[in-house]
Amino acid sequence: MLLAAGMLAIAPRADGAVQAPRRPPAPANRGPAAPPDRERLAAALLAAEDARRWDSALVAEALRNADALIRSRAALAAGRIRGPGAQALVAPLLRDRAPAVQADAAFALGLLGDASGVGSLADRLA
Questions:
Q1: 36-51 and 56-63 are packed helices; what angle lies between their axes, rounded to 10 degrees?
Q2: Nearest to 71 by CA among 47, 97, 50
Q3: If you write DSSP's letter for every residue of the chain in order, what string do you get?
Q4: What are the tens digits of pLDDT across the range 48-75?
Q5: What is the pLDDT of residues 1-58, one digit of tens each?
Q6: Least buried of 19, 31, 39, 71, by fewest C-beta within 10 Å?
């Protein structure tokens, strides 16, 4: 049935010309484009996390970013990579203005598996 429908879509017209199937129009509004800095940081964090390569300068830059999604990704990357000094970078995010970043920071501290992170979590819960 689909084959027949496809054949009809490219069947010759009465004047003999072949008409290609029409593509649906692109969505009119795809929303605002992501800032280049956001894309750069997100890609760099994913690459570092995938390779389990610790880059403290990259993580520190991402943790200071204005975008909550980038801060969350940086916290999770730090927890998964388990780089030296990651706990000191991630712990301040427990007091981030975005609740999702706070939650990801707490999760990241758990991933780090360092018992000294318990104090940061306990202070935040108090």
A1: 140
A2: 97
A3: -HHHHHHHHT-B-TTS-B-PPPPPPPPS---PPPPHHHHHHHHHHHHHHHHT---HHHHHHHHT-S-HHHHHHHHHHHHHHT-TTHHHHHGGGGG-SSHHHHHHHHHHHHHHT-TTHHHHHHHHH-
A4: 999 999 999 999 999 999 999 999 999 9
A5: 444 444 444 555 666 666 656 666 655 555 555 567 899 999 999 999 999 999 999 9
A6: 31
11: left (phi over 0), alpha (psi -120 to 50) or beta: beta
As a whole number of angstroms, the distance between CA 54 and CA 87 comes to 13
* Residue 12: φ, ψ to 5°: -65, 145
Query: Which pTM value belongs to this model?
Result: 0.67
Query: 8 — phi, psi (to 5°)?
Result: -65, -30
**CB-CB contact of 70 with 93 (8 Å):** no
Mind listing the pLDDT tens digit for each residue in 109-126? 999 987 665 666 656 655
